[in-house]
Amino acid sequence: MVRQIVYDCDVLVVGGGIVGLSTAYAITRAAPGTRVIVLEKEPGPARHQTGRNSGVIHSGIYYRPGSLKARYAVKGAAEMIKFCAEYDIPHAVTGKLIVATERAELPRLHALVQRGRENGIPVRELGAAQIAEYEPEVRGLAAIHVGTTGVCDFVGVARQLGEASGAEIRYGAQVVRIDRRAGVGVAVLTGGGEVVRARVLVNCAGLYCDEVARMTGDEPGMRIVPFRGEYYSLARPELVRGLVYPVPDPAFPFLGVHLTRGIDGDVHIGPNAVPALAREGYGWGTLRVRELGATLAWPGAWRIARRHWRYGAGELRRSVSKGAFVGAVRRLLPEVEEGDLVPAAAGVRAQAVLRDGTLVDDFLIREGERAVHVLNAPSPAATASLPIGREVARRALAVLGTL
């Protein structure tokens, strides 16, 4: 006699950040009646990458034409603004400046203009005198204005996605073990001793996505190397009207220390990018030996360090020296003084790194037996969360349809 398996759901999503909740939302929209459970280890949604960024709805100007980041950010920005308007979630389309402060940055600024046009983004080029039209206190040699950039409450978006999805969301449910059996499904054990059985697993675990993939039995071919981004608040927010960014270094997926007037009216300054001593290492005092050991055991981490030590040294200096951080800000905003910067909450970027030390520069989604893994979804994933969610949902439902 064959024993009948009782499934708790059709699709089990691990991770209650904006990508996981967008995926749940997309599944129930595309296939009504599909039973979805979301497991989130925290007591509420969006407690890590989603809730600890600068709240910027990115235009998509930075990303390689044709990449998932470029396509999903451009589409996602428009959809995010519409979603916020539909559900009355605080948001604003402010536009932003990208400012060159040195002559060596001018070719890179021009390259961004070309990239923006290739990605279908309207861009206005500005001379030094025209910068003051948008930001009277900002100085630079040249700039570009990107009108489609905005800000919003991404935590509010995540919460609304969860509610509108109709999925069962279980908070305080940390995944500690996964048992996958071919032709049967997955059984997930939580820290509270609960077992959840599903036909398909979707891994949106962010900072722990590589560990969840390995628990499932899939080797992801990458590891998450956590980078902490440290922020300050500006005590004189009147110095900044909107969003001001430096010209980024194309060798890195980080955008540099920038100025962001959030929906709350506060101006956030940052982030830098320094190695974190834990996956949720929001300060130098947070050290988790096992997690740090796992990072140091990954060959790619050492290869990054050897390849980019000069860049890393500059970031570390800005982390330990407020004066150095202020120096970086003064390149854009000469009026700022050390006393104007008030420490604010930090974030940690879940950056996928390959064995050879390559920083994965695009969203990375892979499939395994009865599983879909989101393995690289840092910024602009919040902006792009609606299109990402649809793509992950499409893959999960395709797996479900073959069972």
Flag low-confidence runs.
none
Given the C-alpha coordinates, what overall shape results?
globular
Per DSSP, what share of the residues sits in E-state strands of 2 or more residues? 25-35%
Distance between the termini: 21 Å
Total strand count, please?
A: 22
Helix share of residues?
25-40%
Q: Give me the Rg, rounded.
A: 21 Å
What is the makeup of the main sheet?
Answer: 8 strands, mixed
Main structural class = alpha+beta
> Number of helical segments?
11
Q: Mean pLDDT across all residues, rounded?
A: 95
Tag the structure with descriptive keywords.
11 helices; 403 residues; alpha+beta; globular; 27% strand; 8-stranded mixed β-sheet
Question: How would you describe what is shown here?
Answer:
- With 403 residues, the protein is an alpha+beta fold.
- The chain has eleven helices and 22 strands.
- Strands 1, 2, 9, 10, 11, 12, 21 and 22 form an eight-stranded mixed sheet that branches. Strands 6-7-5-15-16-17-14-19 form an eight-stranded mixed sheet, with helices on one face. A three-stranded antiparallel sheet has the order 3-8-4.
- α1 (18-30) packs parallel to α5 (154-165).
- The relative contact order is 0.20.
